[in-house]
Write a structure and sequence with these properties.
Two copies of one chain form a homodimer. The first copy, chain A, has 191 residues and is an all-alpha fold. Chain A has nine helices and no strands. Chain A binds a DNA duplex (30 and 30 nucleotides) through helix 3.
Chain lengths: 191, 191
DNA sequence: CTCCCTGGATAACATACGTTATATAATATA
DNA sequence: TATATTATATAACGTATGTTATCCAGGGAG
């Protein structure tokens, strides 16, 4: 064998993530990672074939973090949980969140698609939502997704009032959900 | 005098804009502009002191475009007009829109601040909105801004269903506006 | 103890960038 | 026509990037 390993794969990814978190994904560079670790670029190329491979590993870490955030929310209402998890990601990792938004980001698209189906099923079990057709549920869900994306983007881009807390975001999010649902019910009754 | 001018300031800005529109603001470079114009970088440096000055001119053009889009909407309902103009910008110049969203972008923040005041005044004249306090109007406006940002971002990031038209966006936008207003009225009556 | 494998450092190559110094050529004016 | 002006081209400098070839040194296998 050879000398002791001083710089692990995990340490490299963690360092890359730290740069992404503070300066943005685009400003990651091999030399910058190396400098931050106190090494040369050699250990990076031992662990990763090239930049693409490192970026893939970084995306895996980001996905895993967002998954953890979701699992930490456990009200049993996935509708609510996903909204809060997304808001937390957008506020705690705002730079990365904005980077992902620009990218067109398969990340966002996949995340979205995967959730939609599960959510519709959950909505059908919700007592507040009985009596709606699947199409009506889809419309409600879509409106809420739009609102949640808007709130997340505004949070990550400094477009919210100063000191707007996660709690306030949560309130306005569920408040708007109520608006949408209440109005849908009214429209149904008027028919 | 000297030889005829072959590359004007406007042509340079237009070329930079074209690169921004297709590849993103970040991927503008002096050499790329020059190549696209079929010139060297010299004409650019005659017309602009440096990259910063060119970027300023580019932002001016972007602002002017967004202003034009707004002026093309003329229903007299600024609430509606701003929403549609923003949606059109987000769809027609999606790459630039996303770039501006990331940037934290004074552009968005200024745009936002400037509009809020004018909008509140307009809302007070709206017959559908009589009886609301200023605070209630602010909440309604805020919810609509969030929804509109969300819809614009989703449009620009390919998160909407395929072939989702501007008309459909317009419908869901005004539909949600109705939801929010109707619910606010209901809550008021219940008090 | 010696050899060899391998993690790491160093430095180079190629590329792309902003910027600038210099050269060239075209044109209006004297 | 000659000259001064100036729009443009060319090429260089300095910097940052990804990638790779080469060298060094430490530690287990024989």
């Amino acid at each position: 064998m050879g000398p002791k390993v001083k710089f692990t794969k995990e340490q490299i990814i963690e360092t890359a993530f730290e740069i992404a978190r503070t300066e943005g994904i685009e400003s990651i560079s091999m030399r910058k990672i190396a400098e931050k670790m106190g090494s040369s670029v050699a250990p990076i190329y031992v662990n990763f074939k090239n930049t693409d491979e490192l970026n893939e590993a970084l995306m895996d870490k980001i996905i895993s973090i967002s998954r953890n955030l979701l699992e930490e929310e456990n009200t049993g209402n996935p509708f609510h949980d996903i909204g809060i998890a997304s808001l937390r990601f957008a506020t705690e990792y705002s730079v990365i969140f904005r980077d992902l938004v620009i990218k067109g980001s398969k990340f966002m698209q996949d995340y979205d698609k995967k959730m939609t189906l599960a959510l519709i099923e959950e909505m059908q079990k919700d007592s507040k939502l009985t009596g709606f057709s699947v199409d009506e549920l889809k419309t409600i869900l879509f409106k809420m997704r739009v609102f949640q994306v808007g709130l997340s983007v505004m949070a990550a881009s400094g477009l919210l009032p100063k000191d707007y807390s996660i709690q306030e975001m949560e309130d306005i999010l569920s408040g708007t959900a109520d608006d949408v649902i209440m109005s849908a019910k009214l429209r149904k009754e008027m028919q």
